[in-house]
């Protein structure tokens, strides 16, 4: 974090461990150190992540890194970078809106800094190719897609709609054909821009 100081006027360092956060505060001069959990969306309002040019998640849990990046992106962070040891599903996570996924075994802090400097800023909810958007929804009680296996919903999803990630009770998982979406699940959906109204109606709930 200290090495990134030259890239921005303000850097927030967030750590879920209070003892580690106190130690970090004594070492990382000039940075704002906050104790909190980045899979909790409330923390993003506290640090005003909607104004952030970059959000980098480097906790030990791979899935927490992906989840916090998607939450930060949905809240308005322009670019999000996740550290992930498990390189499975990288293309999917990139398509959902994570801008960079870094394997810590193959990269240094200097490379991260170089990547940050090289990345242009663009609309954070539209993918680069062909009018594709990613949105986070909460499945409503009246939604047509809850309590049914995803494979049985292929008829509804024929309009280039993909359920990429589900967040349920702070657990994150990639759905399969047998997966059922429950009421109040937070669902990350990938779809063509022309299907926006249809997707909102399908979930019978407002965008998060």
Automatic annotation (TrEMBL):
InterPro entries named among the record's database cross-references: NAD(P)-bd_dom_sf, RCK_C, RCK_C_sf, RCK_N, Trk_Ktr_HKT_K-transport
Keyword Ion transport: yes
Family matches, as Pfam families: TrkA_C, TrkA_N
Every RCK C-terminal domain range: 122-205
Sequence ranges assigned to domain RCK N-terminal in this UniProt record: 1-102
One of the protein's GO biological processes: potassium ion transport
Keywords assigned: Ion transport, Transport
Molecular function terms from GO: monoatomic cation transmembrane transporter activity
This protein's name: Uncharacterized protein
Source taxonomy: unclassified sequences, metagenomes, ecological metagenomes
């Amino acid at each position: 974090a200290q090495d990134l100081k030259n890239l921005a006027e303000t850097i927030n360092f967030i750590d879920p461990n209070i003892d580690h956060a106190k130690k970090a505060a004594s070492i990382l001069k000039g940075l704002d150190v906050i104790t909190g959990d980045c899979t909790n969306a409330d923390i993003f309002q506290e640090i005003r992540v909607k104004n952030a040019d970059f959000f980098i998640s480097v906790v030990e849990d791979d899935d927490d890194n992906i989840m916090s990046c998607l939450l930060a992106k949905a809240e308005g962070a322009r670019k999000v970078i996740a550290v992930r040891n498990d390189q499975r599903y990288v293309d999917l996570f990139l398509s959902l809106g994570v801008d960079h996924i870094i394997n810590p075994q193959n990269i240094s802090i200097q490379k991260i800094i170089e990547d940050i400097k090289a990345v242009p800023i663009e609309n954070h909810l539209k993918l680069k190719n062909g009018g594709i958007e990613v949105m986070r929804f909460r499945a409503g009680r009246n939604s047509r897609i809850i309590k049914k296996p995803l494979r049985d919903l292929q008829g509804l999803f024929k309009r280039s709609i993909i359920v990429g990630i589900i967040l349920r009770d702070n657990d994150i998982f990639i759905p399969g054909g047998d997966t059922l979406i429950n009421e109040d699940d937070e669902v990350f959906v990938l779809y063509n821009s022309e299907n926006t109204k249809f997707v909102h109606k399908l979930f019978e709930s407002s965008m998060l």
